Amino acid sequence: MSATPETLDSYLSGRWQRGQGIESTLIDPVSGDELATVSAKGLDLNSALEFARREGQRSLRNMNYAERGKLVGAVADVLTANRARYEAIAIANSGNTKMDAAIDIDGGIGTLKYYARLGAGLGEARTLLDEKPVRLAKAENYQAIHLMVPRRGVAVHINAFNFPGWALWEKAAVSLLAGVPVLAKPASATALLAHAMIKDVIAAGALPAGALSLLCGSAGGLLEALTSEDLVAFTGSADTAVRVRGHPNVVAKNVPVNIEADSINAALLAPDASPAGAAFDAFVRETVREMTVKAGQKCTAIRRIFVPAEMADAVADALSGKLKTTKVGDPRQADTRMGPLVTRAQQAAAFEGIRRLACEAAIVCGGADAPELDGIDKAKSAFVAPTLLRLKSTDNARAVHEVEVFGPAATIVPYRGEQDAAALIARGGGSLVASVYGEDKDFLARMVSEIAPSHGRILAVDPAIATAHTGHGIVMPQCNHGGPGRAGAGEELGGLFGLRFYHQRLAVQGSSELLASLQATAASMH
Fold first, then answer.
1. Any residues with CB less than 8 A from the CB of 28 and at least 6 apart, and which?
2. What letters, b where the CB count within 10 A reaches 16 and e where it falls short, cover 411-427?
3. Backbone phi, then psi, for 502, in 5-degree steps?
4. 265-480 has which CATH code?
5. H/E element holding 149?
């Protein structure tokens, strides 16, 4: 990357276009150096969406699922060929360590490959069959089926800053396989990686014209340009989600919106997990990993640590011991285990959140001040030390259940009994994921049942999978990603289930012979 900031163009209406002036400047969060600039001012978004509806839809609709699966696989191949360059971008623009970058880049590639395989399994079908035929009257040959047919608009994907690679492709993989063209709008602060990836895919000719568009800069009039045939999938803060969902044009046109927003996720240690046991070790190891990977900037990261009251001291000692020895610094150094937050604005927001939590909880390690790091200027960088807090009392505590510090911070919450633990976890108002750790499978099963309504996913860890599971915060394409309440009430991925958002579910009533002919060209979702 050049010392002179690069200008990131948008790819709209089948060509690269540059906005007017500068809306945002992308910064290296370690050195404060300027890396690139973005602007979407003056770009014709109405024409861009119309081009995608016309050209992108025409190409994708004329393909079956297997053919579109090949396209998705071809995108994965392009990204794999350029992976090394993406890692350097992620380190520079997002402050990622190599492990952080791998989660983002390889997660995106892996999801693309997974949906490419699903597409191959759907074969030459052009619609999906949801449920078996049902008889509607005394006449046996009068029946109904439910078909899933691809929508005719554009999927607008508005992504958050923390996963510029994975978030882009986990949405695009599903949409493209469904036959719906994509307009991706990455967060400006870390748009460098998404821009580089899409530029490579476009240059390789991996997708037909109009199937993939890119908007670098502010959303501007993007939502105003949507029609009732379009869709929006948004990942980001709950405040922005409210504005997206409540946009006058979105409301007036009844544009479908899928939201993945704030989430104060929980990890719970069972009373039977002794400090010398495998479940306890797994709990401590995973909590530390979730607090420090991506510097805690994951929507699925552990924010609340629920432990039996009598074990709070042992857990605090175990966690703080590991957090204090975590090497924080420049991710370009091989021994660094945690880098900075992506911007100084995010750093300031994290410090403010830690101060709010500290009104109810004691700081065990870390804190709301920038750490002293060798060779790094505190006035230009965006580092936050791994910060562990411990709740003083659960009786009237509110901040721990309401304030999400989007950084390396989490709070120990002591509980007394199963019902108390379940009630405290539910006070988070809805989360993407929770994880529970213990030796007693009956306890784990009861806890899963108790906290299930508040979550989109639960990881239950007993000694049998203590070292085998994929992780509390790792989103697997086979599993649902989303959650109720403050988490946005949305759903993504989940294998074939993820295709539902990009399809219209249609009941067809008719003769058994007619319905049989429709079924013959459809693939079952079950």
1. 34, 35, 92, 93, 95
2. bbbbbeeeeebbebbbb
3. -95, 10
4. 3.40.309.10
5. strand 142-150
Say which of 299, 360, 491, 492 is annotated catalytic.
Answer: 299
Structure tokens at 189: 């602060």
Structural tokens at position 441? 């499978």
Q: 3-class SS at 88?
A: helix
What is the fold, at CATH topology level, of the domain defined by 45-261+489-524? Aldehyde Dehydrogenase; Chain A, domain 1 (3.40.605)
Q: Given the structure tokens 């861009």, which residue do they identify?
A: 48
Residues 224-269 have pLDDT tens digits of 999 999 999 999 999 999 999 999 999 999 999 999 998 999 999 9
Number of other residues whose CB lies within 10 A of the CB of residue 487: 28
Q: Are 97 and 339 within 8 A, CB to CB? A: yes
SS3 27: strand
Pairing assessment for the beta strands 480-481 and 155-158 based on DSSP bridges: unpaired
Pairing of strands 231-235, 155-158: parallel
Alpha carbon distance 61, 181 (integer Å)? 10
Q: Is 260 a catalytic residue?
A: yes
The CA-CA-CA angle for residues 505, 507, 512, to 5°, reads 135
Could you report the per-residue pLDDT of 70-117, keeping only the tens digit for each? 999 999 999 999 999 999 999 999 999 999 999 999 999 999 999 999
Q: Which two tokens stand for residue 251?
A: 């409301």
Say if residues 366 and 407 touch (Cβ distance below 8 Å). no
Would you give the distance in Å from CA 115 to the centre of its chain? 16
Check if the beta carbon of residue 525 is closer than 8 Å to that of residue 158.
no
User: Per the residue annotation, which of 87, 260, 360, 492 is the catalytic one?
Assistant: 260
CB 98 within 8 A of CB 91: yes
pTM here? 0.96
299 classed as catalytic: yes
Q: 312-324 and 278-292 are packed helices; what angle lies between their axes, rounded to 10 degrees?
A: 50
Alpha carbons 341 and 193: distance in angstroms, whole number: 16
Domain ranges for the chain = 45-261+489-524, 265-480
Distance CA 293, CA 301 (A): 9
DSSP letter at 87 equals H
